[in-house]
Design goal:
Largest sheet: none
Number of strands: 0
Distance between the termini: 10 Å
Order of helices and strands: HHHHH
Number of domains: 2
Radius of gyration: 24 Å
Number of helices: 5
Length: about 130
């Protein structure tokens, strides 16, 4: 995985650095930085996994909350509005600002998409 990140940057550096030894040194330093970042993320993941249930489960809970809000906005709210109109009741439904929710939801879906891509490519994400 690191190679897939380093190679494009290395190719870009290669356009500006003509000295092959310097290029190799910069490539090595870049690989080292990516590796250190991955190790740091692994440590964060270990700490989160050892935490209390709320610390471990905040991502799934955000996903469920966003899923419920999405269902409310596009399914439940229109049904409730129709029921209110048919019944003749004079109840105003609260406004629902979908812009903030959509930003969070799109970020979660993007992460899910990356995870699905990893599974399709059979990437070992346990490393």
């Amino acid at each position: 995985m690191i190679e897939s990140l380093v190679k494009p940057v290395s190719n870009l550096i290669g356009k500006f650095v003509k000295d092959k030894d310097l290029q190799a040194q910069l490539d090595h330093e870049l690989s080292t930085l990516f590796h250190q970042a991955n190790l740091a993320q692994i440590e964060v993941n270990k700490i989160e996994a050892q935490g209390k249930p709320f610390q471990r489960n905040w991502r799934p809970s955000v996903g469920w909350i966003c899923s419920f809000a999405l269902a409310y906005h596009f399914i439940l709210s229109p049904i409730i509005e129709v029921i209110i109109k048919v019944s003749g009741a004079q109840i105003d439904m609260p406004e629902f600002d979908f812009s903030q929710l959509s930003a969070i939801l799109m970020a979660l879906l993007g992460m899910s998409g990356l995870r699905s891509y990893d599974k399709m490519k059979k990437t070992d994400t346990k490393k």
